[in-house]
UniProtKB/TrEMBL annotation:
<feature type="domain" description="DUF6089">
    <location>
        <begin position="7"/>
        <end position="225"/>
    </location>
</feature>
<dbReference type="InterPro" id="IPR011250">
    <property type="entry name" value="OMP/PagP_B-barrel"/>
</dbReference>
<dbReference type="Pfam" id="PF19573">
    <property type="entry name" value="DUF6089"/>
</dbReference>
<dbReference type="InterPro" id="IPR045743">
    <property type="entry name" value="DUF6089"/>
</dbReference>
<protein>
    <recommendedName>
        <fullName>DUF6089 domain-containing protein</fullName>
    </recommendedName>
</protein>
<keyword id="KW-0732">Signal</keyword>
<feature type="signal peptide">
    <location>
        <begin position="1"/>
        <end position="19"/>
    </location>
</feature>
Amino acid sequence: MKQLFVIFLIGFLAIKALAQPSVDIGVFGGGGTYLGDMTKVDFQKSINPAYGGFVRYNFNPRYALRFNVINGTIGAEGEYDYQLYNPDPTDLFWSFSKNVLDISLNFEWNYLKYIVGDKETPWSTFIYGGIGIQTFKYSIQTVNGINDGSELAPTIPFGLGVKYNLSKRWGIGFEGGLRKSLSDKLDNLDDPLNYVNADNIQIKYTDQLHNNDWTAYMGIHLVYKLIYGNQNWELRTVKERNMIDWGIKNKNRRE
């Protein structure tokens, strides 16, 4: 818990130091699950609680940069295809459960212009994407025995959601997202379909850039408007419908 707080605080200070147009902080609560080498998964037993927080630096009503931290248990029960010396795979039962800390920096784009607490922007759908890392422990069975260790894996996060204003400083949102892991050790199955052929050559199916492990999160976030930002900004008129504009103008500046 202390590690999560320190990471969140560092992210907050880094984003706050950039400038002060508008800054939000938020907490997240929901569930996390897994997609990967397991081919038959009991999803009722594979969804676990997840929680976290974020700091969002809003450039304007359309674009934001979000530093996000999620912590939770990722696990699953089911079967996977296994082969070692036989090219015909066999279904084997498998289960795993581990703590996963997910840290990411995402670019967030609102479909509608949105500012927490502004009556003219009561809600919007949004999408996000960015870069991140995951850290977790693994224990993999190999031909030489059990291989234990800790992994720090790059990820590619992306997702979508919808957010609403509750009051002058509070907002709520519903979101879901995926994290593509660039490691194949999340489920403790590192390339289970690899095998040794008749010529004693090992055939591999995955590597650092091509593997099957994903994590998925879905839940609710609660947002507090920490810094309102530049009070001279106002929304553009409805007539100026440019989906890629900054979405703001300065009252004291001639355009």
